[in-house]
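Retro notes (design track)

What went well: tokenization of the new backbones is finally stable.
What didn't: we kept losing track of which sequence belonged to which structure.
Fix going forward: every design gets posted as structure first, then sequence, in one message. First example under the new rule, 515 residues:
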């Protein structure tokens, strides 16, 4: 769903039907300091709870979401125009799985850890502790409005932070639904706060000095947020755009690869940061593969019914991006394999599923994020060429390599500059919460999911303990007479073949020289 703003209210329009289905009060920017005050007060209590108690709230939240799964799916579908199956499979399931994963692992991942202490620091013990940062600001986009807001939120909460969410103004009903789910799960007041509104509201909260910013959205906004954050040295995670390549070698399972290309490019109408946005096919099987792909694409059903495959676009402005890229490609000689020319598109939010060939690497359709149902297909001749094509954009979020030759597939995967690579599948790394998620190059900074995704919301604190029996340490003052002893201590210790006799002798003499 998209929204139109008037008099501090967001009118929510279902993209698939064009109907106004709700109205949401915008958060006035003068309330920003109030949110941070509340968040800081709540943080003091929340962070002092044992982690088991914090996780108990997540259990309640999970159960509520399981009980109301169908209702939540319908809110997501109304708000975004995505089909119900995608709402449940790609937005609700990953959120529930993330909660499950965090409940199972957060205690151990965020618990005090003992690490080795080097022999030269004899007599001491070393530990790492994880201390919550404070009030975390989560700013989320509209394409998977549930999981891209909730997963960072619950990760931050598990660590003991309080959270302010600024969900996308394009999908405000899901933002409201998230607020409601947390409220009804009984989270203490102020632990979770949701601020509704657009970029002005987002900017006001960014400038409000949160202790951490977790942003998911476009490269453009990511750069604005990073600049603002730099002024106050606020640490950030930026999960940004993608232009993911799919490389199909001649020895791949072509039938499976064609189905994967259709799904990888057109799921959620292509509005996926990790969708297959460029398809590179080995020339020997190019024509055969293209025919299979076209058959797949032409069999897909668009609509908003329970059995539809592809839903509508979510955000009207995105349609212009798709149109502009296709226009440029067609003007420069690209060929439509499926779909229609933009001038023949029907009014509304459903775009034709479009496969294009005869494109050049410098076209926008290859270089810029499309975020729509548009798939360029390009033949390649050698492994080197495929790798160069795949690495040839400013993005690096996900990629896929298709071959029955595992060694070749792994070799190519290893050379792709990308936050994730899938072999003989697409997109799927995001569904394993045990794997880190994030981008390279302009696709972002930082990782979440996995252990990294819990620890990023905490200060990593190093602790060393000494029992405090000795009067002094060998490296403390006075230095008189110590230099030659340190020389022989370190030479004997760091030599490839350690000289233990000299080491022990030097160490004992140093200890004795301590007054
Ligand atoms: P967007 O950048 O327009 O908006 C994202 C959020 O930022 C919204 O909540 C918006 O209100 C807020 N915002 C906008 N301007 C702001 C400002 N100046 N200060 C603070 N907040 C501001 O992105 P979008 O159109 O909602 O989402 C689509 C983009 O998100 C695509 O580029 C897509 O690739 C990317 N994305 C990335 C991931 C990932 O995990 N890497 C996942 C999904 C989407």
């Amino acid at each position: 769903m998209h929204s139109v703003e008037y008099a501090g209210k967001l009118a929510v329009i279902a993209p698939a039907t064009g109907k106004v289905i709700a109205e949401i009060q915008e958060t006035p920017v003068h309330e920003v300091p109030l949110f941070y005050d509340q968040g800081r007060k709540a943080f003091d209590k929340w962070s002092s709870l044992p982690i088991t108690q914090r996780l108990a709230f997540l259990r309640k939240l999970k159960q509520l979401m399981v009980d109301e799964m169908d209702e939540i799916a319908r809110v997501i579908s109304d708000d975004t125009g995505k089909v119900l199956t995608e709402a449940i499979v790609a937005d609700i399931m990953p959120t529930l799985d993330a909660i499950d994963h965090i409940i199972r692992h957060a205690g151990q991942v965020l618990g005090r850890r003992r690490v080795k202490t080097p022999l030269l620091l004899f007599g001491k013990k070393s530990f790492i502790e994880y201390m919550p940062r404070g009030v975390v600001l989560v700013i989320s986009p509209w394409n998977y409005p549930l999981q891209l807001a909730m997963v960072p939120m619950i990760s931050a909460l598990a660590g003991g932070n309080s959270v302010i969410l600024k969900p996308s103004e394009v999908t405000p009903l899901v933002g409201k639904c998230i607020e409601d789910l947390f409220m009804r799960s009984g989270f203490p007041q102020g632990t979770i706060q949701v601020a509704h509104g657009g970029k002005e509201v987002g900017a006001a909260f960014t400038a409000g000095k949160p202790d951490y910013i977790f942003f998911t959205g476009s490269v453009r906004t990511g750069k604005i947020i990073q600049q603002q954050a730099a002024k106050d040295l606020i640490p950030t995670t930026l999960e940004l755009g993608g232009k993911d390549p799919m490389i199909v070698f001649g020895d791949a399972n072509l039938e499976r690869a064609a189905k994967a290309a259709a799904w990888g490019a057109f799921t959620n109408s292509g509005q996926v940061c990790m969708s297959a946005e460029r398809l590179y096919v080995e020339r020997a099987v190019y024509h055969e593969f293209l025919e299979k792909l076209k058959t797949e694409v032409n069999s897909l059903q668009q609509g908003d019914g329970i059995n539809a495959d592809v839903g509508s676009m979510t955000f009207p402005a995105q349609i212009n991006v798709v149109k502009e890229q296709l226009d440029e490609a067609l003007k420069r000689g690209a060929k439509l394999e499926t779909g229609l020319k933009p001038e023949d598109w029907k009014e509304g939010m459903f775009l034709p599923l479009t496969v294009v060939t005869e494109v050049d690497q410098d076209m926008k359709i290859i270089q810029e994020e499309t975020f729509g149902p548009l798939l360029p297909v390009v033949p390649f001749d050698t492994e080197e060429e495929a790798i160069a094509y795949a690495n040839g954009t400013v993005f690096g979020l996900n990629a896929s390599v298709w071959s029955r030759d595992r060694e070749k597939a792994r070799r190519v995967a290893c050379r792709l500059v990308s936050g994730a690579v899938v072999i003989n599948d697409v997109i799927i790394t995001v569904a394993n919460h045990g794997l880190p998620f994030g981008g390279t190059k302009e696709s972002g900074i930082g990782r979440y999911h996995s252990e990294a995704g819990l620890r990023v919301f905490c200060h990593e604190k190093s602790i060393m303990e000494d029992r405090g029996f000795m009067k002094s340490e060998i490296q403390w003052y006075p230095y008189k007479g110590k230099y030659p002893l340190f020389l022989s201590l370190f030479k004997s210790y760091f030599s490839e073949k350690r000289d233990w006799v000299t080491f022990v002798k030097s160490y004992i003499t140093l200890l004795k020289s301590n007054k």
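Added context from the reviewer: The chain has a mean pLDDT of 97.
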